[in-house]
């Protein structure tokens, strides 16, 4: 499959550091500024465009049978124009994820008017797919043979799937005994080669970054700015589903902070293009045991207050040295947003609140709703606010967490073992059913 219409912009890479801002050669695979080491943005010189016509084009593509248009990323290709016409696009029909009302959870959290954008509905079960289609497409354009990432789980399964789709080899660095079995199983099933190294994500990531140039590996972690380009399309898809009405708040869990950076970039570009008038406030929520970004902002520190031994049951955001923290800080400045941290107990309560609406997610996803409740109680989010929580991963991404929390007395006796006779069964069921 290839791009079927010409891009409406010229593309370049640029350092995000205000004191530098140096442009980089797009024909060289670099993930940091060659001058100062800063993070890079994919930037575009967009041609003049009619916002109403652009929205109509995107809507019309929803009726198209073209595989490219069936992607929730490439349907918005006018704002992801780095792939030249004729480029091979690696897609698994990512995106097109549901926006679901959650009134019980909203009442519990605020009350607020709550909807959830469930990225767990992507093919490999997480938001990583919308970034990976862009990143692996770029890898193919650059002639890569091996792609690699360090991961707490979701990036690994997504990379492995898209690499397999593209005919590339995938190498995965994971922290030893720190990745859920379902996520690891996904990566293995797609044929990835797995290296278990270090005791946390940050150690695995550091080693991968050091060895990747030596071995000619194409890195697909979110320091690769092309990942961000795919992930930012969560924004137009969400807003289109809302009739282009911006909510008051978009709330996202924060780990390595690529997703929040991407959402901020997407909002800013849509505003600059005139597609939207109002930028919602962006809220980033971290787990209390792994909250370096929150602590940095709270302290007003210039440098990251890294966490050397991050700990939280929400393994997808168990990261102490988030690579994209400067981009996330910039996104909060753009959107006038803020950051919060929540405990593991608060995350579990939020996950249970969502379940009462029939909405399920992995623990890290529920951190966002836990943050909404905490901020609403503090008066920082007003009652009745229009809030969209981005749920980043599928319920079955961490089944050990569910079994652990839903099997004990704290869960109200949801599991029981009964003798195989009718009287014992009757007695136990009457207890559950309240004698009815």
Describe this structure in words.
With 436 residues, the chain is α/β, with parallel strands linked by helices. The chain is 38% helix and 15% strand. It has a single domain, classed as Rossmann fold (3-Layer(aba) Sandwich), CATH 3.40.50. The protein has 15 helices and 13 strands. It has a 6-stranded mixed β-sheet, sandwiched between helices. A 4-stranded parallel β-sheet has the order 8-7-6-9, sandwiched between helices. It has a 3-stranded antiparallel β-sheet with strand order 2-1-3. Strand 6, helix 4 and strand 7 form a beta-alpha-beta unit. The N and C termini lie far apart (59 Å). The relative contact order is 0.13.
Radius of gyration: 22 Å
Largest sheet: 6 strands, mixed
Q: SSE string, helix = H, strand = E?
A: EEEHEHEHEHEHEHEHHEHEHHEHHEHH
Share in helix: 25-40%
Distance between the termini: 59 Å
Cross-sheet strand order for the largest sheet: 4-5-13-10-11-12
What is the average of the pLDDT values?
93
Briefly note the CATH topology name: Rossmann fold
Task: Count the E strands.
Answer: 13
Any low-confidence stretches, pLDDT <50, length ≥5?
A: none
Q: What's the number of helices?
A: 15
Could you outline the blueprint of secondary structure elements for this entry?
Elements: E1 9-15, E2 23-24, E3 40-46, H1 51-61, E4 99-101, H2 103-109, E5 113-118, H3 128-141, E6 146-150, H4 154-166, E7 169-174, H5 181-189, E8 193-196, H6 201-215, E9 218-219, H7 225-231, H8 234-241, E10 249-253, H9 258-272, E11 281-287, H10 292-299, H11 325-335, E12 338-342, H12 344-355, H13 363-377, E13 386-391, H14 399-406, H15 422-433
Parallel strand pairs: 5-13, 6-7, 6-9, 7-8, 10-11, 10-13, 11-12
Antiparallel strand pairs: 1-2, 1-3, 4-5
Helix pairs in contact: 2-12, 3-4, 3-7, 4-5, 7-9, 9-11, 12-13
